[in-house]
Write a structure and sequence with these properties.
By secondary structure, the chain is an alpha/beta fold. Helices cover about 35% and strands about 15% of the residues. Strands 2-8-7-6-5-3-4 form a seven-stranded mixed β-sheet, sandwiched between helices. Strands 11-14-13 form a three-stranded antiparallel β-sheet, covered by helices on one side. The chain has a two-stranded parallel sheet with strand order 1-12. Helix 4 runs antiparallel to helix 11 and helix 5 crosses helix 11. The protein is globular and about 80 Å long. It binds pyridoxal-5'-phosphate. Pyridoxal-5'-phosphate (PLP) binds next to helix 6. Pyridoxal-5'-phosphate binds next to helix 6.
Length: about 400
């Protein structure tokens, strides 16, 4: 099999960013799961497309039967290609992208690698719960942690303004909150943070692939996400973005990021007196934040899905999904489900309060409609590009 087939469509034409086709109308056929159920819980886990699934199958075929084409030596190429595509999605440079295993692990690695001693960190109560735990742990060790609480399910910039000071080292937010889809005013936050010498971390797992992101224009210095949500990939694989000038200087690698060369017998016959006995050779560039191999299944699925998202165009995906979330924001409050998503919020997640969460879930399950019920009675609905108005009809019928 030709390498192009092995790697799928994703392996071609990466250096120039191809214009998106914008045709999202056929997307439903790419996600067969839509045939079996009304799946509106993409903020928990997005289904795989047939394209990513086929690419993973090809990889497994090789690993199992040596059918197809070996992943080595061309393996370095798809790894790099995945970074090129992810960088393009953020308007970052490939040299600013490392692989990560999870969003939460990546944020923890950033915190471990920064000098936070004597400073403070500002975050919000709409950041992910496990991320807040990072800060709780460090608070116990003496770090000054300031958690800005939401007001009416949005973060008030005046509150952030009061919390961020000259001693703030990092402002960490979820760009889109998993709780209610709140899209953080990141540009204004970055302006406040940067004016006081602090860096900005954005958890982008609930928006990368679903909402246009421009780390330069938004003033984001550090970001991370896994691929199993809006990037339509698999669990256990993701990306870390570290602004180039911060690599090694502001964010030090805290896991092994290099190799060694031995300079004594029996490793070498004639040791070089000018060289240390054990010479440590650090990795440079964003790979300094990586440990060992990435998940191959992760790279393969991401390469395929990033290419898919690029072909459709994130702006087009967003425009289409907005028609679905707009309808939910209009119709559900009128049917007795008040929304906790601020009006005019631009993300693929909308959340509503259910009077009787257990009964609501029972009805939805009976109708084979999948949403998330979180934080007691908060019903989170997160449509994607393959959902359609008929899916919403079925949801609304079940809730009637
Ligand atoms: C905002 C947010 N951040 C982080 C995570 C967890 O990400 P990961 O599994 O990649 O650590 C989630 C999962 O739902 C999330 O919604």
């Amino acid at each position: 099999m030709h390498r192009r087939h092995f790697l799928g469509a994703a392996a071609t034409g990466l250096s120039a960013k191809p214009a998106p086709t914008g045709d999202v109308s056929a997307a439903r056929d790419d996600f067969p799961r839509a045939r079996h159920a009304v799946y509106l819980d993409n903020a928990s886990c997005h289904p795989l497309s047939v394209h990513s699934a086929a690419a993973i199958h090809r990889y497994v075929d090789w690993e199992t039967h040596e059918v197809g084409e070996p992943w080595w030596p061309p393996w370095a190429r798809p790894r790099h290609d995945a970074k090129i595509l992810f960088a393009a999605l953020l308007n970052a440079k490939p040299s600013e992208i490392a692989f990560a295993r999870s969003t939460i692990e990546a944020e923890s690695n950033i915190l471990n690698g920064m000098n936070l001693q004597g400073g403070n960190v500002v975050t919000t109560d709409l950041h992910y719960s496990a991320a807040l735990y990072h800060y709780r742990m460090r608070q116990r060790d003496g770090l000054d942690v300031r958690v800005v609480k939401h007001r009416k399910w949005r973060i008030d910039l005046n509150d952030l303004d009061r919390a961020i000071d000259r001693n703030t080292r990092l402002v960490a937010v979820a760009l889109v909150s998993n709780v209610n889809g709140y899209f953080h005013d990141i540009q204004a936050t970055s302006a406040l943070a940067h004016a006081r010498g602090a860096y900005v971390y954005a958890d982008i797992i609930q928006c990368a692939g679903a909402v246009p992101i421009d780390v330069r224009a938004m003033g984001i210095d550090l970001a991370a996400c896994s691929t199993y949500k809006w990037l339509m990939g698999v669990k256990g694989f993701g990306f870390l973005y570290v602004r180039e000038d911060l690599q090694g200087a502001v964010v030090k690698p805290m896991q092994h990021s290099g190799g060694v060369r031995f300079n004594y017998p029996p490793w070498v016959e004639r040791p070089d007196p000018a060289v240390e006995e054990i010479a440590y050779q650090p990795v440079t560039g964003p790979a300094r934040y990586e440990v060992s191999y990435p998940s191959y299944e992760g790279v393969i699925a991401a390469l395929e899905s990033l290419s898919y998202i690029q072909r459709l165009g994130v702006g087009n995906i967003r425009a289409y999904v907005r028609t679905l979330t707009d309808r939910l924001m209009k119709e559900l409050p009128a049917r007795g489900y008040p929304s906790i998503t601020p009006p005019g919020n631009d993300s693929p997640i909308v959340a509503f309060e259910a009077r009787d969460p257990a009964k609501t879930m029972e009805r939805l399950r009976a109708a084979n409609v999948h949403v998330a019920m979180r934080f007691g009675n908060r019903m989170r609905i997160s449509p994607s590009v393959y959902n359609n108005q008929r899916d919403l009809d079925r949801l609304l019928e079940a809730l009637a």
